[in-house]
Amino acid sequence: MGTWDSGPFDNDTAADWCGDLDDADVTKRPAMVCEALSRAAGEDGYLDADVACEAIAAAAIVAAQRPGGQRTTSPYAPDFLRDGDRLDLPDDLAALAAGALDRIMAADSEWRDLWQDAAGEANPAFDAVRGLHQVLMA
Predict the structure, then answer these.
(1) DSSP class of residue 46?
(2) Residues sharing a CB contact under 8 Å with residue 50, sequence separation 6 or more, in sequence order
(3) In the structure, what pLDDT confidence band is assigned to residue 4 with cuts at 50, 70 and 90?
(4) Cα gap 53→116, rounded to integer Å
(5) 44, 135, 131, 105 alpha-carbon torsion, rounded to 10°
(6) How far apart are CA 126 and CA 133, in angstroms?
(7) Which of 18, 91, 94, 105 is least buried, going by the fewest C-beta atoms within 10 A?
(8) Could you give the CA distance from residue 117 to residue 64 in angstroms, rounded to a whole number?
(9) pLDDT band at 67 (very low <50, low <70, confident <90, very high)
(10) What confidence tier does 111 reach under pLDDT thresholds 50, 70, 90?
């Protein structure tokens, strides 16, 4: 996983997924967000870091559209969101996104293991995920 910062879009996997989301037909984008979240939330085994990275990016997109969510400004986020467009997402997607983040922060997650090895328990990547979770649960 090529990572250059701790934000939800700041790694190769998330940036590639966001590019695919940008290129997708506007009617298919909500399903892509839901699929990324469902893959992470539904994983019973060891959660792959790439699945986690896509889900974190998807959760950030959902959180950005919630009350209290921050506008998406990362240069690696989907262009259409940085331009101020929104996705028509179901209201219950926030709960799925929060569940995906819970799964990503669980002990059997490669993403968590990689960040814990790199920075320990208190680190900006964990803080970013916790911040998204807080917005999603508000």
Answers:
(1) P
(2) 1, 13
(3) confident
(4) 15
(5) -10
(6) 11
(7) 91
(8) 29
(9) confident
(10) very high
Return the pLDDT at 127.
93
- Chain-centroid distance of CA 30 in Å reads 14
- Output the six-digit token pair for 51: 């699945």
Q: Residue 97 and residue 24: Cα distance in Å, rounded?
A: 20
With H, G, I as helix, E, B as strand and everything else as coil, classify residue 100: helix
Q: Which residues, 6 or more positions from 102, have their beta carbon under 8 angstroms from its beta carbon?
A: 41, 133
Q: What is the pTM of this model?
A: 0.94
Which residue, among 49, 58, 57, has the nearest Cα to 105 in the 3D structure? 49
Question: What residues have CB less than 8 Å from 118, skipping those under 6 apart?
Answer: none
